[in-house]
Amino acid sequence: MRSPLPDYLLEVVDACASDRSGALADYIPDLARADPERLGVALSTIDGEVYAAGDVDVEFTIQSISKPFVYALAIQDSGLDEVLRRISVEPSGNAFNELSLEAGTGRPYNPMINAGAIASHALVVDGLSSEDERVERVLEAFSELAGRELHVNEAVFESEMSTAHRNLGIAHMLRAQGIIEDDPEEIVRGYTRQCSIDVTARDLALMSATLANSGRQPQSGRRIIDPRVVRQVLSVMLSCGMYDAAGDWITTVGIPAKSGVSGGVIGALPGQLGLAVFSPRLDEHGNSVRGVQVCERLSADTGLHLM
Ligand code: DON
Question: Which ipTM was obtained for this model?
Answer without folding.
Answer: 0.98
